[in-house]
Amino acid sequence: MEQLHTISVFTENSPGVLHRITVLFTRRKVNIESLTVSETERKGISRFTIVIKADSEMLEKIVNQIARIVEVLDVSAKPNSDLLFKEIAFYRVMAPTPDKRSQIEDLSRRYNSTILHLSENSLVIEKTGNEEEVNSLYLLLEPYGIQEFVRSGRIGISKEQFS
Prior knowledge:
By secondary structure, the chain is α+β, with helices and mostly antiparallel strands. It has helices at 17-27, 56-67, 98-110, 131-141, and strands at 3-12, 32-39, 45-54, 72-78, 83-94, 114-118, 122-129, 146-151, 155-158. A hairpin with a 5-residue loop joins strand 2 (32-39) and strand 3.
């Protein structure tokens, strides 16, 4: 049965690694739901956090193929229960009147989000949380008129320290 999986890949930071990793998914016709790449605490080492929807057999095949890439130092797939993970999202929402602005600000506070910017007829809200929290706030803000929406990919870290 297909379900969401998070794959963590540690690589040398060199040109072409992203392409070599993503082509493995393309060949197997597996869509990447989320992809985040960042530097790590170790100089010259990058961390890829990849979220895919696949069955366990496909996941194992992909992880094994990623491990064979020369620049890959470590790769693992963890279930959500073993991870701490979040996304960040920005929403630009219409706020043409003081009453609407006040309603949106109240909603923002109730859902633990932050107002980053105010302009004459809109405001920008930042929400950090899991996919469900980001999506829920989107649905609540939609009636006010979302002008722009952007979200990051998932970032995650294992609850337990690697050995």
